[in-house]
Queue: 2 jobs
Job 1
Amino acid sequence: MTTDQAFGHRHSFDLVPVADGPQTAKEYKSDQEVRWCPGCGDYAILAAVQAFLPELGLRRENVVFVSGIGCSSRFPYYLETYGMHSIHGRAPAIATGLAVSRPDLAVFVVTGDGDALSIGGNHLIHALRRNINLTILLFNNRIYGLTKGQYSPTSEVGKITKSTPMGSLDFPFNPVSLALGAEATFVARTIDSDRKHLTAVLRAATEHRGTSLVEIYQNCNIFNDDAFEVLKAPETRDDFLIRLEHGKPITFGTEADLRGLHRSASGSLEVCDGNEPDVLVHDAHDDDPSLAFALSRVTRPNLSMTPIGVFRDVQRPVYDDLMTAQLDQAVAKNGAGDLAALLAGGDTWTVTQPQADEAALPQPQADEAALPQPQADEAALPQPQADETSAAPPAAN
Amino acid sequence: MIIRLAGDSGDGMQLTGDRFTSETAAFGNDLSTLPNFPAEIRAPAGTLPGVSSFQLHFADHDIMTPGDAPNVLVAMNPAALKANIADVPLGADIIANADEFTLRACQRIGYAGNPLEDGTLREYRVSAVPLTSMTVEALKDIDVSKKEAERAKNMFALGLLSWMYNRPTESTLEFLERKFAKTPAVAKANVTAFRAGYNFGETTETFSVSYEVKPAPMKAGTYRNISGNLALSYGLVAASKATGLSLFLGSYPITPASDILHELSKHKAFGVRTFQAEDEIAGVTAALGAAFGGSLGVTTTSGPGVALKSEAIGLGVMLELPLIIVDVQRGGPSTGLPTKTEQADLLQAMFGRNGEAPVPIVAPSTPSDCYATALEAARIATKYRTPVFLLSDGYLANGSEPWLLPDVELLPDLRVTFATEPNHVDAKGEPEFWPYLRDEETLARAWAIPGTPGLEHRVGGLEKADGSGDISYDPANHDLMVRLRQAKVDGIARDIAPLTVDDPSGEADVLVLGWGSTYGPIGAACRQVRARGLKIAQAHLRHLNPFPANTGEVLRAYDRVLIPEMNLGQLALLIRAKFLIDAVSYDKVNGMPFKAVELADVIAATIGEAATTSVVGK
């Protein structure tokens, strides 16, 4: 069953109330002083998000940003929405509880490569497979910034850092590959400094109902400066970037030297002349994730052939919607819950005849809701007049 | 009358016990039960580690524990006999499934010969009944396999017991028809086995006596039998209704708490959302996320899960949001004894977080008390905007007792008022919302939920500026906030029932103080002590943090305070630290509840020592 069949086609924020009128970026700026290092890529992302949010046209009070720990996780403080700066790695789980219990909210998660992929890796993959209605912005700077420069789970092998003076040993995660492996329904990549592309990806991500994962290459100018410079510099970027667009041929390079991707005889992706007729056409809506996954793997260690854009954007039932539907179904089947009936479920029996000396009887606990201390009531010693108590047969269930 | 049913973990002893309990409850006896089973789902058949048992204590008067020593042991195989015989007093009845007592089976678990025949049990009244073969014979005309027929032997045994104790059988027959509705042959086999067992009792001369235990006198009203985990689940549903907040449970399966997740997942018609999380941390953080959105957030777990949730509970302390953490304690540390009871998580609940992170703690005293305690946890959590620990344990969780159904019309009004308007004015005179502005009486902060226009704000784990809730690294502010959070929790003492003492003569020199599931054994022990002509006072704590305001005063009124605990003296440590009272600990951590007679002896000895000391002192 698809979401379409179950609920009609819904967009990401169809259940979120819309604003009364047009909004401005200024309305989304909080009064808090922004405290990232001067020159940090986070500033550009913040400005892009603040400028983009009015476009959604949602009531500002129904927008929530949840973050974990790290430089990027300060993000919610700077937005005039509801927000929570939580604990390391747990933002997807917190956002899950919030989103599934409040379908009227637009819930965003802001996280980093350490927060999402190291300490919080488990929550990320489970949010993706469940397809919670969340937009996850993963700022990837390939370094730990807040703790002052240790290598991260996306750092390249051999990275020299404070904790790896002879070079890091661990093989890095590719966040896009990881997300696709976790059955994510929307996966995209963009770059902090390319406002236009970043905004377009945000737009696509927020149109998608379910979990949208957006990896944002973000520059840490203090501990990992220019990590993505080849993707940004005008002289190199066209050679290094593969701009994915749904329905368009997958090509890169300059007009003079246009290259493309096609399938080799073995089925793997292969670089070819960009004007060849068998150049692949990007299909982000393909249910089969194999092309999206193959695209996530073509990048070379020097970042040449780095695809950006939407890798995958498919529909699958959304956990929040399914849970709400189960609750509705339960009410439709048996009516709204009746507490008295619930408590009296199972085998019950009734003691009909009050004892003569009721005060001296054992007091079964909890007959008052907020009962104070239990009492070892000495008066409640064995009373041998059992005959007076009639025990009826179990009531019908 | 105390009956213990014991067999392989695949023999259906828990089901048999549950059914006998239902029949007994329906008959009107007071009762208390103690299931005891291995952590392995199916340990190797016929071995000592695989033995599962169910003990039921029922009587014509009110009782407080599942009983110390069984009057009757039903042993389905030699291992069940060997594992339980040490608890059975001489002269008690033993009903053994003779079919399983082959020489090989007996020798496998260390008996030299067949104990039913070689005189090992000469001090007991032994009835060797070929339960398996009689069951198979009774089912020979029913279309079930021999294996299925053999599996019905527990129902044969139940039928026999039902005859012995004059239990009403209708509910069990209905239950079997319902349970096996989809497989009529199996339903018929079980019903037939049950009847065959009953008739066997009636016609055979093996059992000379059919016992009669009359109904116990009870307050008029409608009763049901209820286990702690079920009562706790119902209490949470009731708390949702009382607070007007939707219930959200974030939980990861763990023994012995999983039944609460199972139960609450059935109650979607009450708007209950249950989320089986990817791990313990996600369970609590999802609950906290839901609480941020205005739900009644709950997470259920046992000790190892609490260890994993600690950081998130600290976040809850910082965010000052309502959150209920249910810890159904089990034997620890580490994986410990998953299916055995213990109350050794008190200090973990009290102190197990980084920084100064006070969390209120409540503990139910009996299985049915779990209902009221869940409501109390919700009351404190919502009124004071704080995480609250509810410490149940394996004994309460799986044990059961009759419960007088509460009148839902009398449910307390715990409705929460969310902030909807600005509560402060900024420097320019503009209205603004300060999320950390506190109620003067409770010190609870203002709680505005997403969707409330004009009150947009950010919360987080970084220290908050008093009032505004902005990030603050100011030393004086941190000192103030740490003290405010502590004062808020300490202030709850003004809002809970005082500690009451049961001291009938008013002349006792010794007070026995308990908390949690030791209520039953301590109460029963006090009765035994008084029956010996000694004077003893009893008090039981439902609130462990903060303690009731009069606790110190109550304890100081006695020459000696004795604290029995299923840990190495955790409450005693707190009492000594907080009140400078030289409390005496009596501790045991064998995975089982205290026996009343054992506690009675300890109490009597303490009374004797107190008398000697006070004479010397004078």
Job 2
Amino acid sequence: MSSETLIRASDLVLEYPDGTRALDGVQFEVRENEFIALIGQNGSGKTTLSKCLNGILRPTEGSVRIGDLDTRERGTTKKIVTKVGYVFQNPDHQLFNNTVHKEIAYGPRNIGLSGDEVERRVREAAKVCGLKEELFGEHPFFLTKGLRQRVSIASILAMRPRVIIVDEPTTGQDRRQSVEVMNFLRDLWEKDGHTVIIITHEMPIVSEYARRCLVLSRGRVLMDGSTREVFGSPEVLAQTFVKPPQITRLAQALGGYGVRRDVLTIEEMMAEYRRVTSS
Amino acid sequence: MDAATIRGLGWKYGGRDTFAITDVDLSIPAGSFVSVVGPNEHGKTTLVSCIKGIIPHSFHGVWRGQVEIFGQDTRSLSAQRLAQETGFVFADPEAQFTSMTVEEELAFGLENIGLSLREIEQRLSWVSALTGIDGLWDKSPYEISGGQKQRVAIASVLAMKPRILILDEPTSMLDPLGKDAIFSILLQIKRETDMTVIVVEHNVEQVAPLSDLMVLVYSGRIARAAPPAEFFQDCDQLVEHGIQPPQATMFLDRLRREGAFHGRLSARFEDDLEALKALLGPPAGQGTRP
């Protein structure tokens, strides 16, 4: 992991005005071209941390540096939005323009890009998100939830951030819709070199897509490691009320047979079954 | 006796070109626990709205066929009668809140139907214990956590003692602890009451073990309706229809296709685990077990 560090949170503390200490000394580095999942029970600090990573929230103590920007300094917001994008859980909290085109163009226009450049960014982002130009004149409100989510991701991508944070990309979606949005995020990571950070409660999604997990509990980092290491540590996950995916739990319940504890997929479980039965 | 009997049901919403559901035939035995699964926009909510009777009572559209609740055609029953027979819980609990405190929220419906104070008190303490909301009575239903909101929503519907309880994606907005709490409440309802429960749910892994009947709604039709022990025998068909069977069940299905496993797929984790242990025999180093 010698790749460039894009975001560095050091001794990060965040207290809300009511005195709640949502983050209590977090160390976290986000590097180039990673696929990270933030996991932990509600109230563990996932969403608060993600909002610190793009400067929506400023640290009470400690610091968050995005490249050479310190999020505590005033006047950094316009620079941050070109580096770290944040997609809200509910696309309807983010969409406010009356056409798809205006929605995607809003950010680039707001940072003062020329008309030609704005147009280029809109077409580029729409293409990456699989939004056809026929949709440009549509009102986002009348699109399906999946398409509205793509419009909100496109409006973020138009700023060309290297890091894109997506809060609960699959909540309320059925299996096909979940696979569609997650495959799309995987393409952004794999083909376009973005760093993708998701916040989710759906562990099968984490094991299928994320390569690294940050496990949070009560505002602290319980564990930061590869998805395999994290799901192979059920006793750590239990402290923040997270259960590994069912196939991993099946493998762990068969520990007496010598089955590995860190199986992540059905394919891997098949390989383990063959290994155990042939010996 | 059937809680609901559906024959040749079709419904087209006013202004739409196609039927949302069509040719639906289904019998739901009284006291059973039924899960309705399927992709979004394929007719699940329309189907349960027809059982609840809000279709056709509160919607414009084209109706075909017949729905009976305990032997009575829903079109011949008054909206008030239907409201008493069937309770409805939404994915978003705030959609049903009308009161300033949890206690008022729970008592509202009961006062409306003119129950005695004593009866109201008894029902409140019953639903409050069952759903674990004893400490919340003085709170505003808007200020508590998402999981608590959904428990209050279920409690206020349960307190009316409907004969049929319908829940439309009750866990879709909740975190894992919140989901677990709702599923354990559903298990208690199943054990303690003779209510018929119909739940629309994407979480097949958690809902299947509770179910007497699984119903797959696809393209407005019933693609499959069977008890879990039969429903999951054809995993391929389920996956093709956008349903993800539990991973352990998928794994046993793979073993079965390779000829290594010959048992049934239950979609209950403990059963799948036992089946696998039986297949593997006693673990090495532990001697033989009966």
